[in-house]
Amino acid sequence: MIDKVIAHIEANKDANVQRLLDLLRIPCVSTDPKHKPDMKRGAEWIHQLLTGCGIKSEIVETPGHPCVVGEAGPPDADGPTILVYGHYDVQPTGDESLWHSPAFEPAIRNEVVFARGAADDKGQVLAHMLAAEAWMKVAGGLPIRVKFLIEGEEEISSPSLEKVIRDHRERLKCDYVVLSDTPKFDANTPAITYGTKGMVYKEIVVTGPKQNLHSGSFGGTLANPGNVLSAIIASLRDQDERVTIPGFYDGVRELTADERSRLKELPFDEAAYLKGMGAPALCGEEGYSTLERRWARPTLDVNGLFGGFTGEGASTVIPAKMSAKVSMRLVPDQNPHRISKLFDDAVQAACPNSVKLQVITHGTCAAYVAPLDSPGMKAATQAVESGFGKSPVFTREGGSLPILPMFKEVLGADSLMVGFCTPDCNAHGPNEFLTLADFHGGTRTAAYLMDRLTVKR
Amino acid sequence: MIDKVIAHIEANKDANVQRLLDLLRIPCVSTDPKHKPDMKRGAEWIHQLLTGCGIKSEIVETPGHPCVVGEAGPPDADGPTILVYGHYDVQPTGDESLWHSPAFEPAIRNEVVFARGAADDKGQVLAHMLAAEAWMKVAGGLPIRVKFLIEGEEEISSPSLEKVIRDHRERLKCDYVVLSDTPKFDANTPAITYGTKGMVYKEIVVTGPKQNLHSGSFGGTLANPGNVLSAIIASLRDQDERVTIPGFYDGVRELTADERSRLKELPFDEAAYLKGMGAPALCGEEGYSTLERRWARPTLDVNGLFGGFTGEGASTVIPAKMSAKVSMRLVPDQNPHRISKLFDDAVQAACPNSVKLQVITHGTCAAYVAPLDSPGMKAATQAVESGFGKSPVFTREGGSLPILPMFKEVLGADSLMVGFCTPDCNAHGPNEFLTLADFHGGTRTAAYLMDRLTVKR
What we know:
Chain A has helices at residues 2-11, 13-24, 36-52, 122-139, 161-167, 215-218, 225-235, 257-265, 270-277, 290-296, 336-350, 375-388, 403-410, 436-453; strands at 56-60, 67-72, 82-87, 107-109, 112-114, 146-151, 176-179, 191-196, 198-207, 213-214, 299-308, 317-318, 321-330, 356-365, 368-369, 393-397, 414-418, 433-435. By secondary structure, the first copy, chain A, is α+β, with helices and mostly antiparallel strands. The termini of chain A are close together. At the A-B interface, β9, β10, α6, α7 and α10 of A face β9, β10, α6, α7 and α9 of B.
């Protein structure tokens, strides 16, 4: 039966691509309140696709953006139940002048789809839906029980999802969560990701005078929020690229010798990686390789700075207010709530009384690591081999998926992270893309996974 | 004759205010190329006012914005020749939501005119023009030779003015430059300013990756331009509010004991000053009073920070580029070109090789101090006493007037800085204002000054 399902997927490539383009045209920017109607359209689109092929589906409203919950397949199947998780919300476009084609007008150039959300995560989660659709159409049903949970708040740290999962705990019960929101190792090497970093996202707001002041008339007599903010941020890291927040590294799980040696064996092309970033040089925490820094070491990054005069030329103001967005990526076993508190304390300690300080928390989540020896991990490995024609490598990920530790806690399920996009796919940046080959390979892999998970094939 | 001139000014108050409002409606923002036509309108407006009352006037084009040059009065007068200098260009409005009425729709509330440029400098320079007009109309001429030089590039550090002055050196020859671009000491105390600070205005641009990157996928493996920029800025000052650029304080002229004691005697209300700024506290360089810091100590201030994600909520990018506007105010005898170089060197030294660095210079000018015992200074003192009914105090100024050291060098003339606005007039900030009482008092003072400067009155 799986061969017929795969044949169906192959025969419907063009139609599948058209559906991907349709979904990408909906600007599901969850960070921006003005896109709320587009979020509804996104959820409705997914709901229609699922119900259209006979999968039971429901749009579940939340205080924020809705999510779509679906299920199909025999409840008493000879195999585990999987929950396909993904998200239809996307990052803001950022500086639109840097996009070669508009972010929400998907363009295909050289067999590559360029659009915001192509890789993160619309294209990848759609592959699972299309695989299920193929099974439904060809086999009249799924070989195992498959559930869907596709949310609209992943890019804003999933504020509503925990309640949805807890409220629908029985309905979402599963043996494995399957998700594709991580990349392959490189363009030619599929990967299964077994760990993600956690995150704490902060905004620091420093306020001085009640309004911008003339820097000549007032300079030297009051604290300048721009100077103060710079000093606060500078105080959070040292010259060896280590975070100086007291207690920050407490509980950090060091890599095992085995992990370090496996990382070293990966076909990682450091020069190509650097070239891809386009930065002058690699740098990072002393004593760790580039891959170790990416996947297993906590970081602290400025994401944005703004305030004062930001126009052309020169305006001599002492700014009334200055803000910084600063986020930390965490590793097992850092507790995000503890790190959040330590950050607040360190910023407070670095801030003089001559300004007002506000620290806003935009999101927190824990890191996650999955076991490598589960039956699900083995089936996923086989599915990738069949779908992409190549064995996957096992990697960790610098990005954060807040839902993973939550799934583990609430549903008791470990996650299988099977990535279909390339690591240079420009997720979060301009010109995000997904190759058509990866889109179709992902669809095949998702179809194979349902087959390989059945106990009696 | 002076009494008749003053009577004419008093009788024409309303008409004079209408002309002030007319001038303020023209958005002469010299920093912004899109306002170039408005700059031309501003120059034309001034030219028309001067020629309208019989003052010879010409619009002198420059590579940037035009300036207006005029002259009237007997070449062989019994008195010195003065050159009234001012500027018709204004600062950008900044955050328009903070203005209680639109910046370029002047509003009068409680006998106060609110508009961008009301104080800096349209309202003040107009007072001199209206005083000359009154003399022309009432006396049929001016009692001394008066020249005008009203430029359109003061807020962008006067890039064209030096060439204009050098090209028109003979035509602009004078014994004193008279200008009103400094404030009174407080609302009730007129002031003559005898010194201004110099300035060096810089923009630091730090570039890392070729585009914004996902902070999870890439964080920890490259230098973050936001962290680097913060560290660079933080390195330029220490916790005692002193600038740490090597050599920065070399050549700084310390206040004399006499100056310090005179400053101490000024009726400076520190609590009111702090309340006016609306900052939580005063602070500044150790060992100096607030007035000393304002007027006689060099400073370094962040004027703007921008880059990365600056929207609502959270976006986890490593920014490709981060910029800061940073300016320094200088005192005698710091050499601005030397300070500019020292700044560049210090920034370069604080910047790692893992990012690209660009330092742009937006403007430099020297500090200036005038002699307090000249005949011109005495006449100006008497003119203020007559115009405002109160003796002026002698102050210095934290702001910069690049033209003063240039006038001294090219024309050999010292400057008489007679201020008509209040120090809390919100120059460069939202809701800039000038009281009608100060506008009229300034016009009277300017009329008296021409009279008091004549040797045989």
